[in-house]
Specification:
single chain, mainly alpha
């Protein structure tokens, strides 16, 4: 399943020299790719959409926009 764009690729499709063959990837696959490129361990730790909403709005994000994002996460999430 395609995921929301969190990484923008250049016209060449390369990220730090690594060729990306597919634009659709799971969050776990993205974490693995970031670990490989940055040489820093990344991991995907799924959380409930409401926790995301509370965290980002407490940090000052616009609650109306973040409610829209939360709702999109709720519609597309995999069960925890």
């Amino acid at each position: 399943m395609p995921i929301p764009a969190i990484l923008v690729l250049g016209a060449t499709g390369k990220i730090s020299g690594a060729l990306v063959e597919e634009l659709a990837a799971s969050f776990s696959e993205i974490a693995s790719l970031l670990t490989e490129i940055a040489a820093v361990r990344w991991r995907y730790d799924p959380q409930e959409p409401d926790l995301f909403f509370c965290t980002v709005t407490a940090a000052g994000a616009d609650p109306i926009y973040m409610a829209c994002v939360r709702n999109a996460f709720e519609r597309t999430r995999s069960p925890l």
